[in-house]
From TrEMBL:
Entry-linked PANTHER family: DIPEPTIDASE, MICROSOMAL DIPEPTIDASE
UniProt organism field: Roseburia hominis (strain DSM 16839 / JCM 17582 / NCIMB 14029 / A2-183)
Protein name in UniProt: Renal dipeptidase
A single GO BP: proteolysis
Taxonomic superkingdom: Bacteria
PROSITE patterns: RENAL_DIPEPTIDASE_2
Signal peptide (residue range): none
Short name of one Pfam family: Peptidase_M19
Amino acid sequence: MYENSGNRENAVQNPAAGILYKVRGFFIIRKRQGSSPENKKELCPEMEKMMRYIDMHCDTLGSALAQKTETFLELDRTMVDGLRLQQAEAGAQFFAMFLPQRNDPDWFGLEEMPSAEVLMRKMYDIFCHTMEQYGDRFAAAHNAEELKQNQNEGKISAFLTIENGSLIDGKMDKIREIYDLGVRLVTLTWNDDNCLGHCHSQKPEEMSRGLTGFGKEAVRYMQELGILVDVSHLSDGGFRDVAEASRRSGVPFVASHSNCRALAPATRNLTDAMIRELAECGGVAGLNLEPTFLNEDETDKVSRIERICDHAMHLIDRGGIECVGLGTDFDGISGEFEISDCTKLPLLFDALRKRGLSEDAVEQIAYQNTARVIRDGMR
C-alpha cells in the first residue's frame, strides 16, 4: 500500500519427495512440486485455459473508501475497479484491507484516523456491498473450489486480504475472526513492527530480527486454518521464520507483491537466497509495478514493461517458473506507468512472449502458479 508516494510514504527445489504434516488432527503427506516438464503441466490442471490472470495485491478498497462509494464497481482516478476488471477479463483479484499503524486519515479521505477494527469494517462493507449488488459479475472466493466455480459461472473471483497483521493484537481468537469474515491472506507486517514480527528496514540489525513468539504460533495457526501467509514488507529474519514454518507444515507461503533485490535494492524486495527458499517451499512472488521496486536507481519513477520482464526472468532464473506470479500493487503505488491500469496487463504477457517464454510459461505467471498456491494454501 502506498509504497513510495511522496504524500503517503517514503518507506523504507526441495529434494524431499514429500512432507508429513498435521492439519486439524490428521497427518497428511503433501508432495513437493518438482520442476520437470511433466510436473509443470500438473501445477493446477483444473485452471488450465480458464482465465487471463490472477493478481495477488491491490489497494482499491482504500481508494473506494476515500471516494466515499458503496462499491468498487466504478471509481475515478484508480488503476482497478469492477468495470475494468471485466474489461481485462480478470480471473481473480485479491483486495487488500490496508490497516496502517500510522495516523494518516487523509489516505482514506477521513478527518480522523479510526481504529484498525473500524477501518477494516469500512473497507469490508465496500467489498460486501459490491458482491451483493453485482453478484452476477463478482463473487467472493475462499479456496480453489470456489475460484473454479466462479469461473464456470462467468464471475470474477474476489479474494479478501489484510495488509498488516497489527489488527490481530496478540490474540489467536482474532485470527479465527478474520478467517470467518472471509480473509484468506494476511500480509504479516507493513512498514512498522507489530505483534507478529519485524518489518523490513535499512538497518541490518533490525532487518535480521524475525517473528515474535506469538507471530510464530500465529503463522502455524493461519496455515492450519487455510489463510495464506504473506511475507511482503517483512524483515529478512521474519522471512526465514516463515520459510521454516512452511517447511514444517508443507503449506506454501507467498511474497504477494515483491520483486528482486539483485535488480532493485529496495529492502521490500527478495534476495536471490530468499527467492530460492520461497520456490523450494512451493511459494510464489507477485511482480510489483512500483518503480522503486523495479529500478536500480530509486529516483527513477517510471515503471517500464521491460523492467518488469527483467524481474520476471530473474525470478525464473533463481527459483524456476513455478515461483512467479502477479502482485501489481495497483492503487497503492505512484509514478509513471506503462501499465497504467489492469486493462493493460496483456502488454506484459506479450512482452514476456517476446522474451522467449512459451505460452504455457506465460499462463503459469498469469494465473496457474497463483491458482496452485490457492489450492494448496487456502481452505
